[in-house]
């Protein structure tokens, strides 16, 4: 998108009005810039999600984030393919006398949109791999953040009365030495 923002618009020497370098089609430049900026912002968002992903303890939230990454990457792969076809078609119909400056930027935008198809396709593969890992990754990498406090008494399921004293005022079969109850 930077190629199109920088040199995607030009004007004729006789007119101050700017037009898109791709066959004077404003939609071609807007489309390339639009999907480029949205892809850039989405990459920043998903990069931040990837940084904080191990700290997300809710498996449902993790699942939705991975599915969002998978579906967004799939959609953007398709949109980059459409963008490549659209920009290439419009560049093929552009007359050589209309291009004074910016031909290299137009070719660069077409080239980058072509390679973006494969880049976003690779992101689909990574997102699908993470989706397949599912809860397995969560079970191995999650550590309970609460500190472990040892209690002097046993918990309910594992009751052990060996460490307690005998309750007072209970009659046992054997009498202690030298003492007779009244």
Automatic annotation (TrEMBL):
It holds the Pfam family MARVEL. Residues 160-169 have a biased composition (Polar residues). The keyword Cytoplasm does not apply. The keyword Kinase does not apply. Its main location: membrane. Residues 1-132 form the MARVEL domain. Belongs to the synaptogyrin family. This is Synaptogyrin-2.
